[in-house]
Design goal:
By secondary structure, the protein is an alpha+beta fold. A hairpin with a 2-residue loop joins strand 1 and strand 2.
Length: 159
């Protein structure tokens, strides 16, 4: 499965983690305010943390079993930027920019190469990619052990 999100820990403590999410794939959609999404996202981060693999697997299993709400006290999404994302509109803006640069869609090779470069640039530019802040409050602070402010990871979380 392709990664959809880049997550960066902005703040962490007392069972609460604040994550800055940046979409890295057009299929990411809106970040949901759901316990399942939150635990999948945290599980992906914990998989990379020393000594936290078992907790990561347990969280992921809760999301799959529909019991994520038993460990998540609350989820909120704030500071949305470039959302909702419209893939069609983004492509139309790129097409317009390519025409302004004098490129001709009839020259398929040059057009496609320029489009692909612009499309990649969109997803690598945090000022243009969809972003949001996700705050997750867990019922047990220890579930976050292993994560620290500044940690960063990619995730295919959904839900």
């Amino acid at each position: 499965m392709s990664s959809l999100w880049n997550a960066r820990v902005q703040e962490i403590g007392g069972g609460t983690v604040v994550l800055r999410l940046t979409a890295i794939h057009p299929d990411a959609g809106e970040p949901p305010e759901s316990a399942a999404f939150a635990v999948r996202l945290l599980a992906d981060g914990l998989e990379r943390a020393a000594g936290a693999t078992e907790r990561a697997s347990a969280l992921d299993a809760r999301a799959d079993a529909g019991t994520a709400g038993e460990v998540v006290a609350g989820v909120s999404v704030t500071e949305r930027r470039n959302l909702p994302f419209s893939e069609h509109a983004a492509k139309e803006r790129i097409y317009a920019a390519l025409r302004e640069r004098g490129l001709d869609p009839g020259d398929a090779s040059a057009w496609d190469a320029a489009f692909q470069a612009e499309w990649r640039a969109l997803w690598q530019d945090p000022s243009r990619a969809p972003q949001a802040t996700l705050t997750v409050r867990l019922r047990e602070a220890g579930l976050l052990d292993g994560l620290t402010a500044g940690d960063n990871w990619e995730s295919a979380a959904y839900g």
